[in-house]
Structure formats: structure tokens, C-alpha cells
Amino acid sequence: MSCTKNKAAATIMGISFPKNTMRDCSAIIEQAIEQDKQELFHVITGNPEIVMASQKDEQLRTIIQQAGLVTADGIGVVMVSRLRRQRLPERVTGCDLLLELLAAGNRNRWSVYLLGADEETNRGAAEAILKMYPHIRVAGRHHGYFKPEEDGRIVQEIATAQPDILAVALGAPNAERWIHKYRSQLHAKVAMGVGGTLDVIAGTVPRAPMIWRRMNLEWLYRLIHQPSRWRRQLMLPRFAVRALLHRERENIT
């Protein structure tokens, strides 16, 4: 059950986004970790790609519905909410949220397991985390290039590690599906898909400078540095048009 059930929310294409700031989200997740419940707390960073995919994928909509927390990952989601006069306060990206949680984890001596990206990036991210956050314990890690028949071994490895935070970089919505499929077996306290965040932490992909982020142009900065993303970026105007024209029937809570 979501910790944000009674929180005012914006509804975009049937997906409910609680009106949380980054500080709110961090506090909610910290509470979930400190409560030490048996049930995994699934965090979904809801970007336009996930929202669009959920329109034709009932299973994905159910996964979002059952998540402990959904954040507004992307300026597109925030802008649509404001044009629809539902006004989300700010974007809460997977990258920023994971960095916020790592800082909190450093204070609280949490553990983290890193799943995803290629081996070099995964290892580099683990090393960078240990350097930047010396009080965090990297409970384990595994690259993202594994076959479905290897799932059982990896799930068991995570379950044995029992991390406070499981960061899954398998791409959206694959990460969300993977977490949901094994949520009862992972024995992690919190799990979230983190997109390309491990690449940023490892330094293999540059993060947009703060001025670009403040201007909500991080997507443009990434496109300039990764031109191969142009096909994915074409989805953004389609999302905006569909979201603005969409007639909401009922909120997902």
C-alpha cells in the first residue's frame, strides 16, 4: 500500500502522481527503510516513457498502481500537470532521488545493491559510491547483461545481501517489471528503477550542468551528447499532446 495514499495528486493519463517535492520523497523512502517492514517498498520514477507504455500495458498499469511511491520524473510530466491546473511542485528524477538517498544512506549507514548497466559501468559506480559516501555499504552488485535463466541466482544473491536500497538500471519499464516480478523474494527494503544513473555516477555519461537542469533543459543536453537518443525524444511531444487531450476517468491510488 502506498505511503502517499492521502496525498493530493495530479492525474496524468490515468497515472496518479502525488504532489511531492524531492524532500518529501526522500523522507517517505527513509521512513520505509527505517520501519524495517517485510514488504518491499517499490519506488517508480514515472517518466513520459513509462506513462505512455502503461496506456497499452495493463500489467504495467497494475505495477504502477501497487507501487509504494510514484514520482514525477521529467519536466514533461510536470508541465502537463501545470497546464491541466493540477500543478506538481517539481520534478523528482531517478538520478536526483538516488543521489539524495545515497547521501541519506551515508548518514544512516545504509546498504545498497547495484543491478544493471555493463560490468565496467556497474563496477565504476560502486567504486564511486564508496569514495563519495564512505559510510554506505555496497552489499553487492551485478551487471545488467544477464539471461532470464540467471534471474534465480541473482535474486538469491540480492536476498542474501538484504540491501536497504536496490537500484535497478535495466531501463524503463524493464526495471519496474523485474522488481515487481521478484518483489516477494528480493528481501530488500526499497527498490527503484534508476535508468542511466549508474552511468552518471560512474562518470561514463556526463550529467547536465546545474544551469541546464534549472532551465529544465537536461533532455536537450543529453540529446546533444547522445545523438542516438533522438528517436526516444520524439516521444516527448507525442506524450504532451496525448496527455493534454486525455480525459481522465478516475484516479489510480
From TrEMBL:
Alphabetically ordered keywords of this record: Cell wall biogenesis/degradation, Glycosyltransferase, Teichoic acid biosynthesis, Transferase
Query: EC annotation?
Result: 2.4.1.187
Per UniProt, the enzyme's principal EC class comes to transferase
The answer on whether this UniProt entry bears the keyword Isomerase reads no
**Pfam families of this UniProt entry?**
Glyco_tran_WecG
Pathway given for this chain reads:
Cell wall biogenesis; teichoic acid biosynthesis
Q: Which reaction does it catalyse?
A: UDP-N-acetyl-alpha-D-mannosamine + N-acetyl-alpha-D-glucosaminyl-di-trans,octa-cis-undecaprenyl diphosphate = N-acetyl-beta-D-mannosaminyl-(1->4)-N-acetyl-alpha-D-glucosaminyl di-trans,octa-cis-undecaprenyl diphosphate + UDP + H(+)
Write out the similarity annotation: Belongs to the glycosyltransferase 26 family. TagA/TarA subfamily.
The record's annotation in HAMAP family points to:
TagA_TarA
Q: What does this protein do?
A: Catalyzes the conversion of GlcNAc-PP-undecaprenol into ManNAc-GlcNAc-PP-undecaprenol, the first committed lipid intermediate in the de novo synthesis of teichoic acid.
Q: What is this protein called?
A: N-acetylglucosaminyldiphosphoundecaprenol N-acetyl-beta-D-mannosaminyltransferase
Q: Give the source species.
A: Paenibacillus lacisoli
